[in-house]
Design goal:
Length: about 500
């Protein structure tokens, strides 16, 4: 019987490999501590560091793929060019009703903030109509397209040709037959994930629409950026005189997903139709995104919308945001308005995962005696985000925020909030860290008591069917549920 002895060479190689892995592990951790906190929120940096320290090699790969929230330099340069052009061409057109007795004195610095961040002016002489019904909204947009004489600009995070959106696609086809130029932008990844993607792009091509995907992830064609940087905007502009924007995608309210249909899920949204000078600002965002994807500049093609008569002066300001800008424009706007509120703050957001600054603003308002209400869905369609959102409920409830849960199986997807009785914001932006940092969004700030009254009616319709969550009920949930919520809160900060 012979006894095998270990090969000394193999032993040395194994030792060297172990030392190399250990050295690599230590190097990754040290470099991560030095590099990752740079120009990031502390909570975001901490989340990435935890991921890298617990799973160093997997964590660093994920960071290399997802760690940068900046768009390619070429696109950021184009955004800067457009901003400069908008500032130069809109200088002095801020025709607003500051002498109106209901004009809030605290609003002036917020208007200036928005102007500095997003280049868009506050303009008066507008009208606005809310559309809270999903199918009727699509019908209204189709009717608007039917009136088009020169151009239709459609931009949606998700665009799908299905039985619900058929009237809209028919309207586009008929507009092209009349000689109208139809341009369409759709987010690449979001639309690609729908079952109707190929059918949709084939139909757009067949009808003669000029279309492009936004932020394409096509590395073989030299088009690549962080894959979860998405264009989340939803807008439609007709002849430069009528515009729609808000939270609704152009797809069936089930999102054409078998799992949603099986669960009975459907989405509830809110869109607004604008007329007046604000339409030029909304169209400027389409022009920006079209230029970014095509190199074709459309600035001078569409005339400015003219003022319209309304019940009372309606002033509005477009606030674009996203990784193409240096600052988080929407977050700064939201926080400024919450801190300026004197009486009431009512928020509707399907994905409510605030950063520390927004959480402090909202809880401070509630603790100061303001009436602060939050409308969210009772159920969620995105597991991680839904549970991360729930992790904030206890702190909000303890501060005095009233939370209303919109009943299943509806996903309340509307995105808007009102400040006192005079100012509102509506658009595509959620109140979560993804919308603040990673998504291109559109928000419109509106100064009009009549418009706020209309939104109050929408809020009341939510309240009538929702259930108010109490602190006692929330504290009674299982320990396992609370643990899951808190773990998912950590993942929300990884961006």
């Amino acid at each position: 019987m012979t006894v095998e002895t270990a090969d000394p060479v193999t032993g040395i190689l194994s030792l060297l490999l172990a030392l190399a892995l250990l050295a690599g592990d230590i190097t990754i951790r040290v470099l991560a501590v030095i590099y990752i906190p740079r120009n990031r929120r502390p909570q975001t940096a901490l989340a990435w560091l935890l991921a890298i320290f617990f799973i160093p090699y997997v964590g660093i790969i994920l960071f290399l793929l997802l760690g940068s929230h900046r768009l390619p330099k070429k696109r950021r340069r184009r955004q800067a060019q457009i901003n400069k052009y908008i500032l130069e061409t809109t200088d002095g057109i801020d025709q607003v009703s500051k002498d109106h007795p209901r004009w809030p004195m605290w609003l002036d610095p917020i208007v200036e903030l928005n102007r500095n961040l997003g280049a868009m002016p506050l303009v008066g002489g507008n009208s606005a109509t809310l559309y809270p019904d999903y199918d009727l909204t699509i019908a209204a947009m189709a009717r608007a397209v039917d009136t088009a004489k020169t151009t239709v600009h459609a931009e949606f995070y998700i665009l799908a040709s299905d039985h619900t959106t058929e009237p809209f696609f028919v309207a586009l086809e008929q507009a092209i037959e009349r000689g109208v130029t139809v341009r369409v932008l759709l987010d690449h990844i979001a639309s690609l994930r729908t079952s109707a993607y190929r059918r949709t792009i084939k139909r757009l091509t067949r009808m003669g629409a000029l279309w492009h995907v936004m932020l394409p992830v096509q590395p073989l064609r030299g088009k690549y950026q962080r894959p979860d940087l998405r264009n989340h905007r939803k807008l439609l502009v007709i002849d430069g005189t009528v515009a729609f924007t808000g939270s609704q995608n152009m797809i069936d309210s089930s999102y054409d997903k078998k799992s949603n249909i099986r669960r009975g899920l459907h989405w509830k949204d809110l869109m607004v139709r604008f007329e007046g000078p604000i339409v030029a600002g909304i169209n400027a965002l389409f022009v920006t995104d079209w230029y970014s994807e095509t190199d074709e500049l459309l600035i001078r093609e569409v005339p400015d919308a003219t003022p319209v008569l309304t019940r009372e002066p309606l002033d509005a300001q477009v606030v674009p945001s996203g990784p193409g800008f240096k600052g988080e424009n929407n977050l700064r706007l939201f926080n400024s308005l919450v801190y300026a509120a004197q009486h009431k703050v009512i928020i509707t957001s399907p994905y409510f995962v605030p950063d520390d600054s927004m959480l402090y603003a909202i809880t401070t308002a509630a603790q100061s005696g303001l009436d602060v209400q939050l409308f969210v869905s009772e159920i969620g369609d995105q597991f991680m985000v839904f549970h991360a959102q729930r992790s904030y409920y206890e702190e909000l409830l303890r501060a005095g925020v009233r939370i209303f849960l919109y009943p299943a199986p509806t996903v309340l997807h509307s995105k808007h909030f009102t400040i006192d009785d005079d100012v509102a914001v509506i658009g595509s932006s959620n109140m979560d860290m993804r919308s603040f940092s990673l998504n291109l969004e559109i928000s419109v700030m509106v100064r009009s008591r009549d418009f706020v009254d209309d939104l109050r009616e929408v809020e009341q319709s939510y309240r009538e069917v929702s259930r108010e969550l109490t602190l006692d009920e929330w504290l009674a949930r299982s320990r396992a549920a609370a643990t899951l919520d808190n773990v998912m809160r950590l993942t929300a900060a990884v961006q």
